[in-house]
């Protein structure tokens, strides 16, 4: 009986121009989103890989230089494209993708699409994930709002009951019909997921998990729409209630939640942070000031360690040791500020994830971004990995100054051209420096991180099932 009711509902949709136009439009948008996102992601991946190779080559092909010149010359780290980023670009448009690495500073990532493009990017990029999160539920609302309410208004519920249809069978048939439409709406996105998984061997399991999350999300809408249609007195009342629910769940709550998380746990501005770091740097000590207490004590420790009375008698270049110590102090300071900022941002993200209790859109969005490796955690991992690489690179260059550059030549290079020439070490040393590399989190790690969001979707499925059970009881009473 449920199958027969579902078939009748689908035939009714096929006879409706509005339904056909709506489904065709969604499929077209979803297909366009899949193709354009795939093309843009492939282009971004190739561009970043080429840019990283180019900047590495530029660093390695520098001529003979003083090591400290290379410290200030610096290099770049580019965040690789997530393995499933063609499906869900996540926070990539807002966090920046390029980081300049140099001595004595910790820079911010730049070239985020939201800052390089129009403000429309902030509303949402047209990706398969965006279509499923926002547009597909709206289509389901317009196709399913009258599924049961229409039967009540026409007086056909009693006729169905007289043919042996129970309230549960009627609701099951309506759910099956609307679920078939939801599955059709998912088809282009599923193809996009499959294509991304094929391009990245080993991503099949996490792609299936993302597809499961969206299937659960749309099933919540299918069951909820059917239940509201059964509970509403009129089809018009069901439509108004469901449009209001769509606007609140997919638009209002996610944006209000983001604003609330930022207000509840604000992140210091870059300007404030820069001023605070500058003040702390002045308190750390000045390696260029011979009377500075910290570096005077440092000098005494170095002389005592080597058993000499003057830096000229050291077997290494004292300036290189001072540069390494200064870099250690500043990097520890940068790490402390970065850790505070990371904690605040992770706290904001946790608040958003917790609010998945009041909006399944937040839950599925979190699961999708984590699975696609385009979430905040992946970006912070990139920043931390880049900082670790920067510190290691700078300290390697400082070690070259300490061990490969004569202390006497280093002290005289500003006034003696020959000494300046002798402080320029061989360019072969630049080729020994390691290159930046960052791999996406392992699929198993991402799958584990998706569990809280999947749990919230399970909770919403339970809530929608309870709502459907209430609708069944209401239909039973109506029949009596």
Automatic annotation (TrEMBL):
Residue ranges annotated as transmembrane are 130-149, 170-194, 206-232, 239-263, 449-471
Tell me which domain of life the UniProt entry assigns to the organism this sequence originates from. Answer: Bacteria
Query: Which GO molecular function annotation, any one, does this entry have?
Result: ABC-type transporter activity
Q: Does this UniProt record's set of keywords contain Membrane?
A: yes
Query: Can you supply one Gene Ontology CC term for this chain's record?
Result: plasma membrane
- Pfam families from the xrefs? ABC2_membrane_2, DUF3526
Q: Which UniProt keywords are given for this protein, alphabetically ordered?
A: Membrane, Transmembrane, Transmembrane helix
Coiled-coil ranges from the UniProt annotation:
none
Q: Which InterPro entries match?
A: DUF3526 (IPR021913)
* Keyword set includes Transmembrane helix: yes
**Matching PANTHER family:** ABC TRANSPORTER PERMEASE, ABC TRANSPORTER PERMEASE PROTEIN NOSY-RELATED
Q: What is this protein called?
A: DUF3526 domain-containing protein
Q: Which species does the entry assign this protein to? A: Sandarakinorhabdus fusca
């Amino acid at each position: 009986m449920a199958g027969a009711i579902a078939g009748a509902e689908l035939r009714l949709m096929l006879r409706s121009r509005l339904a056909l136009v709506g489904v065709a439009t969604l499929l077209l948008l979803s297909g366009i989103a899949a193709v354009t996102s795939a093309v843009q992601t492939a282009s971004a991946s190739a561009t970043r890989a080429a840019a990283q190779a180019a900047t590495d080559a530029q660093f390695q092909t520098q001529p003979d230089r003083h090591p400290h010149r290379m410290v200030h010359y610096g290099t770049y780290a580019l965040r690789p494209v997530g393995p499933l980023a063609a499906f869900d670009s996540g926070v990539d448009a807002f966090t920046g993708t390029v980081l300049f690495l140099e001595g004595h500073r910790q820079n911010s990532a730049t070239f985020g699409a939201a800052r390089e493009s129009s403000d429309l990017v902030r509303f949402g990029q047209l990706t398969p994930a965006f279509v499923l999160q926002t547009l597909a539920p709206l289509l389901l609302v317009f196709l399913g709002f009258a599924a049961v309410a229409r039967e009540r208004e026409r007086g056909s519920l009693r006729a169905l009951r007289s043919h042996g249809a129970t309230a549960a069978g009627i609701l099951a048939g309506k759910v099956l019909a609307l679920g078939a439409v939801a599955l059709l709406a998912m088809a282009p996105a599923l193809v996009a997921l499959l294509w991304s998984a094929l391009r990245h061997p080993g991503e099949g399991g996490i792609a299936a998990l993302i597809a499961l999350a969206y299937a659960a999300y749309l099933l919540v809408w299918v069951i909820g729409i059917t239940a509201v249609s059964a509970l509403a007195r009129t089809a018009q009342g069901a439509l108004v209630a469901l449009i209001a629910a769509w606007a609140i769940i997919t638009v209002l709550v996610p944006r209000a939640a983001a604003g609330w998380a930022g207000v509840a746990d604000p992140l210091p501005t870059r300007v404030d942070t820069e001023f605070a770091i500058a003040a702390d740097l002045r308190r750390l000590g000045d390696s260029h000031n011979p009377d500075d207490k910290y570096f005077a004590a440092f000098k005494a420790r170095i002389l005592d360690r080597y058993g000499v009375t003057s830096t000229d008698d050291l077997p290494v270049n004292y300036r290189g040791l001072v540069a390494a110590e200064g870099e250690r102090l500043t990097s520890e300071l940068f790490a402390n500020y970065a850790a505070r900022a990371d904690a605040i941002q992770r706290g904001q993200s946790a608040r958003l994830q917790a609010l998945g209790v009041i909006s399944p859109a937040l839950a599925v969005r979190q699961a999708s971004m984590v699975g696609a490796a385009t979430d905040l955690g992946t970006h912070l991992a990139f920043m931390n990995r880049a900082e670790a690489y920067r510190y290691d690179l700078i300290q390697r260059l400082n070690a070259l100054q300490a061990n490969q550059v004569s202390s006497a030549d280093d002290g005289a290079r500003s006034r003696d051209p020959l000494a300046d020439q002798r402080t320029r070490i061989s360019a072969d040393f630049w080729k020994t420096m390691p290159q930046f590399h960052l791999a996406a989190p392992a699929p198993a790690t991402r799958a584990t991180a998706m569990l809280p969001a999947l749990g919230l979707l399970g909770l919403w499925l339970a809530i929608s099932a309870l709502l459907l059970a209430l609708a069944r009881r209401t239909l039973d009473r109506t029949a009596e």
